[in-house]
Amino acid sequence: MQLVVARVGRAHGIKGEVTVEVRTDEPELRLAPGAVLATDPASAGPLTIETGRVHSGRLLLRFEGVRDRNAAEALRNTLLIAEIDPDQTPEDPDEYYDHQLMDLDVVTKDGTEVGRITEISHLPSQDLFVVERADGSEALIPFVEEIVVEIDLEEQRAVIDPPPGLIDDRADIASSRDAENAPAAGADHASSGEEA
Predict the structure, then answer these.
(1) What is the pTM of this model?
(2) Do the bridges between strand 148-152 and strand 157-160 make them parallel or antiparallel, or are there none, so unpaired?
(3) CA dihedral 154, 123, 148, 134 (to 10 degrees)
(4) Helix (H) and strand (E) counts for the chain?
(5) 128 Cβ partners below 8 Å, 6+ apart?
(6) Are 28 and 77 found together in one domain?
(7) Is-contact 196 190, C-beta < 8 A?
(8) Which domain range does residue 125 map to?
(9) Rg (alpha carbons) of the chain, rounded to whole number
(10) What is the mean pLDDT of each run of 10 residues along the chain (196 residues)?
(11) 27: CATH
């Protein structure tokens, strides 16, 4: 099975290094020197990682045969793809590879069917499940333990406990302003909210 592990960014320096946007929780394994990665577009690869280092919080890689800035810049936006065993799982039991989560049925704690995961969106702050509903609409479910309470790979489902309004339009919105603006029977209403 193929897994996208990074996207090549801009060239760094003049000796062929590139920045990479890491898309794996295991960069020390997937992006280690000696790793051979397929590419998208396929014509850019395969690429063998020669060196890797962290500079100013970003991972820099150099590939075999890429020796100057022009060659490095030509790789910009190339996806790096690792071949992995489909039965392999992350070391942490609370982590999952995207391919394990794709097509899971999403249900609420009470068993109400929500839809099916069609995409995992990786944002800087959190990951989101893109869930296709039966009516064809999409719901975005934050992949956080407060909302996604169980992942059951054997049953092929994700159980969620969504807050009001996340998957329906029945959000309870309490506003103290509404209560303040409702005049009490037989009382004058002060528009400033202060007592006269």
Answers:
(1) 0.54
(2) antiparallel
(3) -70
(4) 4, 12
(5) 120, 121, 140, 141, 142, 143
(6) yes
(7) yes
(8) 98-160
(9) 25
(10) 85 92 79 91 91 88 93 93 74 74 90 90 81 90 91 91 79 47 40 36
(11) 2.40.30.60
